[in-house]
Amino acid sequence: QVHLVEPGGGSVQAGGSLTLSCAVSEDIFTTYLLGWYRQAPAKQRECIATITTGGSTNYADSVKGQFTISRDNAKNAVYLQMNSLKPDDTAVYYCNGSPNWGQGTQVTVSS
Fold first, then answer.
1. What distance in Å separates the CA atoms of residue 67 and residue 84, rounded to the nearest whole number?
2. How far apart, in Å, are the Cα atoms of 38 and each of 11, 71, 78, 93?
């Protein structure tokens, strides 16, 4: 049974924007804090944004003001809007609803 599915990665030039989406099973969506993580090559996976069931958000300093996490309660989906992308944002991005993980989606930002 698949709990979190993340289409929507891809390649973009520096300065561009991309939106990631994650379809979440209802039991996870209504129970857990939802988050986006990323893992760059040779680096540890880091939490970059979270959103509570009530819609409160929190961001890592590295993406604050650049990325926006949101949720659609009608669609059981969580999104990550990424603006002003930089090559350092290149990573595999994961959706999380602890202890459940999506399969990850590659985002590549070229200079």
1. 9
2. 15, 18, 15, 4
Contacts of 43 (CB under 8 A, 6+ apart): 91
The tens digit of pLDDT for each residue in 51-103 reads: 999 999 999 999 999 999 999 999 999 999 999 999 999 999 999 998 889 99
At 17-45, the pLDDT tens digits run 999 999 999 998 999 999 999 999 999 99
User: Do residues 23 and 94 make contact, with C-beta atoms less than 8 angstroms apart?
Assistant: no
Report the distance separating Cα 99 and Cα 83, nearest Å. 28
| Distance, CA of 103 to CA of 111 (rounded, Å) | 26
Place of tokens 């990550």: 80
Which residues face 93 on adjacent strands?
38, 105
Rounded to whole angstroms, the Cα distance separating 51 from 108 reads: 24
